[in-house]
Write a sequence for this structure.
């Protein structure tokens, strides 16, 4: 009975995985025909194993991209981005641009969403630091590339940008991503693609140790200059030999009219043009002897790196403020119709090992490029259901994230608890098994109880009620409770893949916890060895958590002091195994720890 009921549910949720085949076949019919129909019920002999689910679906990857979009930690842990998402910045949002000269801003160039990032990139070098503070004069249209999409040095980080607007074959060879100079070329290519396709974008949103906008045209009138200040730290000499306090070229360049846009005669008359061919802002540490804050002996400039790190960790789980995503236009290289990438991912479960540029066929790249153009061109009246899909995915993480970690803790005893539930199977006593089973039963019941109709569930201590009377309907409600009432007729093609992914992920979670709850009630009565049952539970929870790969489980185990932040290596601020935080693909994911904001090196 136990195995039969689990198979019934697995057959139900496995229907969602058939969207791989359905989506692939729908490609020839056009994306508007995309649908995800459940298959006939699977018999127990054909029910898929967890291994089959891991190999045959991208639902967990799409779910992670959705839940982690626009947040620092998820996109640092999963740096190889696959998402292209239209976003907007509201009117009157402040952005920042720092330079090492007193010139006007060329196009294209960059603005930071946080002043600490802009200042941290520029300060601490020979020469001064000038900061332009802007506000948006209207709604700003961007495309967001997820992952570590503004970080250089590792294949995979910049892939989505470089396949949307590919470089020339001879462009900046020999360095992944094209190096520092390749950044300007990349901006030019993307902005030219925007113009060519008539997409009316203002730029492109990316992330490294913070969020920045690759801005296409500073003369468009979309930005209003609030101030232009010489913010060189007082103990840093300027290259001319003067101090920052007596440099005639600095100062606050307020306009006669505060609403005058960048590009007005007042601004251009006040600021000399930048040196020809100079594109400052993309080379942390240039002229200063290293990464931000390490150049020279200034105690003020050296603090910039730590303050940048501080604000970056503010965004670890909370999305970058002032960014409004359009979830109905979620375009992803994890879409199951992209057969070349499906093939390349077989046996490669870790998101950090997936590379679009290396693995995608030209046909699949063209398909995604066409899709993002299509969603950017469609009218505002075709924006789908209005469902906040990202919040639904976060609801799943909030409900199950810490409880699954708690379940793993119960089964593996990773604490100094007097009841050593995590003891090896050879030392598992009957008393410990009873306590463990009770804790597991209560916790799995807690996760199921909003969906469990106890009408047919008799006294649990007797375990006499056939699970077929309550388990399948419970798990069906558990798997689809977030999306059950969403009308398919209101969904865009992109929303359908989001709905299917959320349902699939919740379906697998519910299946596993439902099976363990049932087994905790029936385990000893099924004639199964206690140690064998515990070993199976451990393996299933471990595999489930590995498959989900949620960033919520990456955290410092103790609270950090007020002069510390809980951090992991982030390019270009903190490093592991390399000068810019380049991860070593042969090493396991890093464990975060408390990093002092007044430390010497900031290395992990």
């Amino acid at each position: 009975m136990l195995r039969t009921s689990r198979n019934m549910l697995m057959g139900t949720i496995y229907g969602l995985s058939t969207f791989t085949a359905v989506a692939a076949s729908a490609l020839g019919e056009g994306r508007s025909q995309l649908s995800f129909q459940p298959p006939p019920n699977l018999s127990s002999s054909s029910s898929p194993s967890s291994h089959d689910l891991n190999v045959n679906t991208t639902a967990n990857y799409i779910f992670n991209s959705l839940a982690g979009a626009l947040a620092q930690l998820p996109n640092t842990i999963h740096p190889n981005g696959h998402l292209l998402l239209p976003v907007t910045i509201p009117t009157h949002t402040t952005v920042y641009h720092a330079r090492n000269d007193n010139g006007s801003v060329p196009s294209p160039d960059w603005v930071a969403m946080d002043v600490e990032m802009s200042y941290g990139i520029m300060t601490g070098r020979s020469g001064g630091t000038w900061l332009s503070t802007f506000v948006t004069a209207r709604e700003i249209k961007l495309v967001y590339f997820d992952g570590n999409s503004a970080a250089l040095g590792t294949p995979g980080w910049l892939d989505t940008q470089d396949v949307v607007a590919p470089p020339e074959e001879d462009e900046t060879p020999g360095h992944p991503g094209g190096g520092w100079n390749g950044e300007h070329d990349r901006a030019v290519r993307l902005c030219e693609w925007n113009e060519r396709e008539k997409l009316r974008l203002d730029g492109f949103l990316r992330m490294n140790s913070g969020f920045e906008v690759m801005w296409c045209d500073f003369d468009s009138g979309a930005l209003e200059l609030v101030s232009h200040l010489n913010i060189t730290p007082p103990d840093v000499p300027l290259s001319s030999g003067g101090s920052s306090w007596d440099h005639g070229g600095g100062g606050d360049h307020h306009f006669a009219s505060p609403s005058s846009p960048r590009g007005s005669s007042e601004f251009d008359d006040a600021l000399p043009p930048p040196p020809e061919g100079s594109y400052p802002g993309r080379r942390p540490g240039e002229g200063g002897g290293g990464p931000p804050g390490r150049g020279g002996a200034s105690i003020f400039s050296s603090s910039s790196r730590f303050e940048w790190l501080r604000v970056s960790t503010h965004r670890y789980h909370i999305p970058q403020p002032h960014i409004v995503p359009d979830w109905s236009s979620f375009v992803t290289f994890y879409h199951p119709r992209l057969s070349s990438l499906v093939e390349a991912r077989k046996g490669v479960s870790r998101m950090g090992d997936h590379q679009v540029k290396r693995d995608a066929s030209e046909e699949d790249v063209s398909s995604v490029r066409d899709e993002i153009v299509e969603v950017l061109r469609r009218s505002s009246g075709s924006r789908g259901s209005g469902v906040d899909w990202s919040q639904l995915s976060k609801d799943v993480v909030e409900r199950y994230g810490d409880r699954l970690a708690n379940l793993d803790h119960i089964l593996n005893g990773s604490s100094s608890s007097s009841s050593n539930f995590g003891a090896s199977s050879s030392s598992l006593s009957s008393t410990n098994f009873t306590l463990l089973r009770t804790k597991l039963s209560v916790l799995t019941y807690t996760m199921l109880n909003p969906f469990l109709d106890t009408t047919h569930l008799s006294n649990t201590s007797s375990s006499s009620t056939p699970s077929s009377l309550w388990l399948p309907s419970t798990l069906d409600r558990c798997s689809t409770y977030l999306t059950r009432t969403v009308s398919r007729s209101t969904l865009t093609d992109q929303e359908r893949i989001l709905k299917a992914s959320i349902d699939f992920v919740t379906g697998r979670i519910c299946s596993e916890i439902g099976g363990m709850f049932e087994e905790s009630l029936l385990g000893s009565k099924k004639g199964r060895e206690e140690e064998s049952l515990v070993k199976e539970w451990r393996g299933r929870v471990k595999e489930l958590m590995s498959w989900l790969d949620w960033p919520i489980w990456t955290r410092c185990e103790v609270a950090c002091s007020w002069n510390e932040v809980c951090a992991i290596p982030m390019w270009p601020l903190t490093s592991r195994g390399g000068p810019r935080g380049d991860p070593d693909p042969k090493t396991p994911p890093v464990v975060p720890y408390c990093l002092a904001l007044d430390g010497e090196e900031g290395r992990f």
Observations:
- The chain has a mean pLDDT of 77.
